[in-house]
Design brief:
2 helices; single chain
């Protein structure tokens, strides 16, 4: 509720939630705990990517670009196939 901005400090994959700094609540005992937020309710405004992650993404994108035409027939190949019979 409201503008809760901050860095993601934990990703709890078993519960499918993320924990964001400064978004806490107080338990009955007085202890403060992080509130789990559903990732679909958040907006990424700034993404920190280190060099290894950047290289991996570039490698992944280049493979996807190469495989784009894989298994597809072009119009020229289709025309050649018509002449085979």
């Amino acid at each position: 509720k409201g503008k809760g901005e901050g860095k993601v400090i934990a990703c709890y994959r078993k519960k499918w939630v993320i924990h964001i700094e400064r978004i806490t609540r107080e338990k009955a005992s007085g202890q403060t705990v992080q509130v789990g937020i559903d990732p679909s309710k958040t907006v990424i405004t700034k993404l920190k990517i280190d060099a290894d992650r950047k290289r991996m993404l570039e490698r992944k994108n280049s493979k996807a670009h190469e495989a784009k035409g894989k298994g597809k027939y072009t119009e020229a190949e289709a025309a050649k196939m018509q002449d085979v019979d």
